[in-house]
Every structure is written in structure tokens, then in C-alpha cells.
Amino acid sequence: MAETVGSLIDKLSILQLKLFYMQAQTERPDASRKHKSACGSRWRVLKRQRNDLARELSELLANIAQGKIRMKVYRQFKMYNDPAYRS
Domain spans of the chain? Predict the structure, then answer.
């Protein structure tokens, strides 16, 4: 499984911000009708993407809770700022 709970939540939060700001573009009084229409189309695409990710997160959490899958823990071994790794 390529996605983790954390990566899905990260993507969802970014999409939610994009949705918020794209919606704001559709309500700008100084924007052209063409701009508002384009932003409305983009907003609908972003909403579908957000819904897909939310569904994927729900399925992942359900599978974890049911014991169907187990998440792997990937350790990070950072070497920067550690004097032991300097030559």
C-alpha cells in the first residue's frame, strides 16, 4: 500500500485549502464571468478528488480497524547535522 493515513490526511488538507480558495475566486466581484466559470469547473474537479481521497482514507481506516491490513513502519535515519557522519 502506497498511501498512509498521514499522507492521505496531508493530501486532504491541501485539497481543502485549494477548494476554499477556488470557491473564493468564483465569488470575486471584480473577476470576469469567464474566470468565475473556469474556477467553478476547477472547484468541481477538486471536490471529486477530495471525495475520492476521503473515501480512500475511510476504507484504509476500516481495513486497519478490522485487521485486514497492517501499516509498515518506515524508520528514518537522518544523517545531516550529525558530526559522526562528517568526513
Answer: 5-85
Q: What is the pLDDT of residues 40-59, one digit of tens each?
A: 999 999 999 999 999 999 99
Cα 27 to Cα 32: distance, rounded to the nearest angstrom: 10
Q: Give pTM, 2 decimals.
A: 0.77
- With 0-12 CB in 10 A as exposed, 13-18 as middle and 19+ as buried, what is 18? middle
Separation CA 5–CA 31 (nearest Å): 38
Nearest to 37 by CA among 46, 23, 48, 26: 26
Helix, strand or coil, per DSSP, at residue 66: coil
In angstroms, the CA 68 to CA 51 distance is 23
Other Cβ atoms closer than 10 A to 42: 15
